[in-house]
Design a protein that fits this description.
Strand order of the largest sheet: 1-2
Shape: flat
Protein name: Cytochrome c oxidase subunit 7A2-like, mitochondrial
Number of strands: 2
CATH superfamily of one domain: Cytochrome c oxidase, subunit VIIa
Organism: Gambusia affinis
Pathway: Energy metabolism; oxidative phosphorylation
GO biological process, one term: regulation of oxidative phosphorylation
Order of helices and strands: EEHHHH
Pfam families: COX7a (PF02238)
Number of helices: 4
Length: 115
């Protein structure tokens, strides 16, 4: 006996062998056409690219490594200046606010109910 998944009942149902081996959406009669190009620039096939690797820009990793490994007393998570300070302080404020909210909720929950 062959089975297939029914999208209507969300269960396995009995099916003929041809239906079980060709699920919905996978029809053999559809012509094999390449899809339309989505991006403006065509991509290279692996065989066309050869062994060389092309980059779109310069490699910034060595400069960033020097920048972040510089020993200037600033923590690594604050090295980029104002945006890092803003993110750090926002995270700390939300953390402290969440702790205060939890403590208030625990205090309210610990109070006896008034009858």
């Amino acid at each position: 006996m062959y089975y297939k998944f029914s999208g209507f009942t969300q269960k396995l149902t009995g099916a003929a062998p041809t239906v079980a081996y060709n699920p919905q959406g996978l029809k053999q009669s559809l012509p094999a056409e390449s899809p339309t190009m989505i991006f403006a620039t065509p991509t290279k096939m692996v065989s066309e690219a050869g062994s060389t690797v092309e980059y779109l820009g310069t490699n910034k990793v060595p400069d960033l490594q020097k920048f972040f490994q510089k020993s200037d007393g600033v923590p690594v998570h604050l090295k980029r200046g104002y945006p890092d300070r803003l993110l750090y302080r926002t995270t700390m404020a939300l953390t402290v606010g969440g702790v205060v909210y939890c403590l208030v909720a625990l205090y309210i929950a610990a109070q006896p109910t008034k009858k």
